[in-house]
Amino acid sequence: MADQSFLDEGNETVVTDETEGLINLDDNREDFNSIIGTVKARFSDAETGRRNDETRWLKSYKNYRGIYDSTTQYRDNERSQVFIKITKTKVLAAYGQIIDILFANNKFPISVEATPMPLGIDEFAHLSQLTIQENPAKDVFGFEGDGQELLPGAMQATPTQQQEPQGPQAAELGGLADKYEGANLASGPARMGEPQISPAAEAARNMEKCIHDQLLDTNAVTVLRHAIFECALLGTGIIKGPFNYSKTIHNWEGGQYSPMDRTVPRIEAVSCWDFYPDPSATNLNDADYIIQRHRLNREQVRDLSNRPFFNKEAIDNVLQSGPNYEEKYYETTLYSSDDDPNYQGRRFEVFEYWGTLDAKFAEEIGIKVPKEIKQNDSIQVNIWISGNDILRFVANPFIPARIPYQAFPYELNPYQLFGVGVAENMEDSQMLMNGHIRMAIDNLALAGNLVFDIDETQLVPGQTMDVYPGKIFRRQSGVTGTAVNGIKFPSTAGENIQMFDKARQLADEQTGIPSIVHGQTGVTGTGRTAAGLSMLMSSAGLSIKTVIKNVDDFLLKPLGEAFFQWNMQFNERVPEKIGDLEIKPKGTSAVIQKEVRTQRLTALLQTVANPMLAPFIKIPNLIRELAISQDIDPDALVNDINEAAIFAEVLKGLMPNDQQGTGEEAIAASQQPTGMGSPGGVPQGTGPNDETAVGGGGIGIGSAPTPGEAGFTGNLN
């Protein structure tokens, strides 16, 4: 078999995975049926446990789409059946707010930082002062062969006999000793006048760039948008991953196209309708298992054969048996098709199980539990089944074992895994708005037309009672004007419209999303003044801040940690020494009004312009935060401290000589280190008036010789 999911060894079938852990399953149909029965039984429990949630979701979806429930009753005299989709407006407004906050600067809001006291890697290291040879050259310009020749524009002699850290110390520096080759790199905080670096922070920055690159490669922003939409609508968004995905890298060598396959992490959005968690769990960390229900066509089932550790023979059996998809009661609303009502009959139902399997039960049905987990009460497995066939059976490939799903609520329900969405919060308001607007329309239809009172005893028999312009009624008796009378009913539409507006205001309060946020004009009451409008926007900000906090805690942080673990396990390009790092979501920090945040950061930057205060402020971090507040990608425009030192030297070289001296004096006066040299970039013992060393005379290198002295080459005439 081309597929290596199942390897025949005697009478046993061996299923293996990326962790090289082995699970042995006897080729016995009874054992297969026991496993299939276990998965289906847990699916049935999960389906029953979320039945109330399905009812909530279905109401929310119908209110969003403007669909009346089949149980809605209409009076015989009620003609109008309009549906005012304010729910859709609120859901899209909440969705837009979340997207705007999280991805305002087109960057995934996840950062990696070193812990306050990192383990396994130094928090601080310093570059010691560069030493010069004990016997300096007699001439400031050096002499041939002395090892002290100065290149044009050099600031000090070439250092010699530098000692690099060795052994455990080099390991604790996380590879930074190689980056700063030729310098005395030592562990611990720097002393006065010595540049300081942070190996732990360096490792954090490298890991952060790696994760952001992976998220960009897998189009994670688009995936997350789908999950955020369901979060706003149904109350819960779900992301699956990261898991291994083979990506083709376009590569050209010597004019020849030679593509490469590289394993990258990938995430995908999972619909709430296909997500079946452990019914007893209130969060994913507490769940014993998760089951995802797949609805696949024939080609998608066949493509499973190309994935690692899938049983090709079992997949062929499923295809030969034919479609087996069983439609749920809610799917007639979700996937309705007027053209082909039986389209679901061409689909295959596949269950993907992630969770525990009782170790004792596993051994009873013939599964050989690996030695390293044999002492546990349960083992973590991944099982795919369809019908009566096991398509995949492997040990959980992740170390440590984890269920690769993240579920984040819009509004947290502490007693359930699934949250509460915008549509559910304003369900009553939507019902009131629909009722009053229908009443207003029916009343206007009645009040806008005359109702006729006809005395048929006064009319000639056989006439139709239809009324139209030019109609003639033949009267046989009575007083003129008494046989046919027009009656005009009063209009109550004004009262109904007032109640509609009250219900709409109630929806604003229930959702925490003022109508002004999604473009309502003609705001009355508090919103008519600038102060009142500011209060409304602040209230909206407080409401959305809670939602963003849930996204931070239940999605961004666990997703970032999952990517970190994936890189440490599967990414061969990540160094072994990574240090003690912490994943920090950045969604909540963006909730503050951008204008206010920019003003505050700008004021702080002006404050620290004082040389006395500058050493106490992390200037690079301040500049980065200022860029973020203005929707600018800091990585694209802001240099780190090492890049800043390089560019400072470049700019200094472009300045006129008279300005260079002034700049150097200012830097030296403020005692600000530049790059890896001594304070101000000037070696110790040198100054603008020093004529025996580098920098004297204020002209770049050395002092100007006077006529008659050695080295003077000018024309005396």
Please explain how this structure is put together:
By secondary structure, the chain is an alpha+beta fold. Among the domains are: 1-49 and 288-402, no CATH class; 426-522, no CATH class; 643-698, no CATH class. Helix content is 37%, strand content 16%. The protein contains 20 helices and 20 strands. It has helices at 29-49, 51-65, 86-102, 168-172, 176-179, 199-217, 220-234, 298-303, 312-321, 331-334, 359-364, 422-425, 427-447, 493-511, 530-570, 594-607, 619-629, 634-637, 641-654, 657-670; strands spanning 6-9, 12-16, 22-26, 110-114, 125-127, 185-187, 196-197, 236-249, 252-253, 256-257, 260-269, 275-277, 289-296, 348-358, 378-386, 389-395, 405-409, 450-454, 484-488, 581-585. Strands 12-13-14-15-16 form a 5-stranded antiparallel β-sheet. A 3-stranded antiparallel β-sheet has the order 1-2-3, with no helix packed on it. Strands 6-5-7 form a 3-stranded antiparallel β-sheet. Helix 2 (51-65) crosses helix 3 (86-102).
Proportion of residues in β-strands? 15-25%
Shape: flat
Class from secondary-structure proportions:
alpha+beta
Quote the distance from N terminus to C terminus. 96 Å
**Strand tally:** 20
Give the biggest beta sheet: 5 strands, antiparallel
Mean pLDDT: 75
User: What percentage of residues falls in helices of 4 or more residues?
Assistant: 25-40%
Helices, by number, come to 20
Strand order, largest beta sheet: 12-13-14-15-16
Low-confidence stretches: 1-26, 130-137, 153-163, 662-702
> From the alpha-carbon coordinates, what is the Rg to the nearest angstrom?
37 Å
